[in-house]
Amino acid sequence: MKKLTLLLLLLTSSHFLATAQAPLSTKKWTSLFDGKSLKGWKQVAGTATYAVEDGVIVGRTVEKSPNTFLISEQEYGDFVLELDVKIEDLGSNSGIQFRSQYDPAGRDGKGKVFGYQYELDPSPCKWTGGIYDEGRRDWLYPLGLNPSAQNSYKHNEFNQVRIECVGNQIRTWVNGTPAAYLVDNVDSKGVIALQVHAISSPDKVGKKIYWKNIRIKGATKSADDFPKDGYVVNTIPNALTDFEKKNGWKLLFDGQTSTGWKSANKATFPDKGWVIQDGTIGVNVVEPKEGARGGDIVTTDLYSAFDLSFEFKLSPGGNGGVKYFAGPAQGDKGPIVGLEYQVLDDKVHPDAKAGRDGNRTEASLYDLIKADKQPRFVRPVGQWCSGRIVVYPNNHVEHYLNGMKVLEYDRGSPAFRELVAKSKYKDFPNFGEAPAGRILLQDHGDVVNFRSIKIKKFN
Prior knowledge:
single chain; Jelly Rolls; nine-stranded mixed beta sheet; eight-stranded antiparallel beta sheet; 8% helix
């Protein structure tokens, strides 16, 4: 028994020595590709081919294969990774995995790679540099969140990729242009992998992807060269990074108290209907009867031009909303009205079929403009969703759902006023055109929770 135990310890130790990562220098680069062989890498999960040609790793697509990966034999945690990549076909797609996981038993023993991916996308979407969660959560940072980086990729040329991971902060660059900024706690280390994507038709067989100059070094702090207006996707509930704080973001909900909020019609926070627990603030309908509701709540501060983000979770069949420029309909009198980002269970709630042309569905500008949503970016009821409303100083407004822009319009424009004239707001003078107003969370009588409500004022 002692001999067996000793043998198992030796085998475990041998496996550890084979896969453990030697400490990375923070000053000197370590090459992950010797320019001659695939030493230090192994192919998994598919049958696409990888070869070294003229000092470059060349991946080729094959028919009837799932996504294929050339993964590093070592795992890496905090680092800066740089490499050059070229894709020859506009219709191809690829990615670079980092801090990713490999499960040999996944997909019925065929192997599965999953985790963070730096997107390589030569298509008109222009999402190269965005962050995708391969085999797991889908898109984490679509590059539409940073339009200024979308033209940085150069097709059929070598593009420099840079990925920085420090703690729970992940940042990417495309040819020196800052691209994505993600804060996420799911994986702190993992493999690096070069992906050859599955193909959809025989005419895509043999398309090539090239990688070279793959190098890595350790990192202990983030570089201080991201633009201050760069948008951060922060998946840590009710938290802001130092970068966000430094650049004007603040939490509208601290995760614990009602500070900064009050009843829409009173000076105090509702004493019923609303519940703050487990880092959320929401409507909790225990007894759906007259007098049980707490009513809408609003911020104590007014806002004009701003970038507002929030997460929401609906109950089945639920209805809620986030209103902005909210205030009395007539001066200091009348009901509290405002432009509304609709929060709704589109599949069950009847309001989704009301209004005109779907303009009361989730993420729509309620009763005015329908949200143009891609099905893959619509999450099931019961899951946390992310919303975003951006109001620029020139009164251009954008709505986002789960990282995707779903509508835009201009407050006060002739087109906007024409929509108002056809809506339920037609009798409210200058509806939606106030110079400033409050942010409002709606109590529609259904259970809905909010968290990670953050805002940045534009100067």
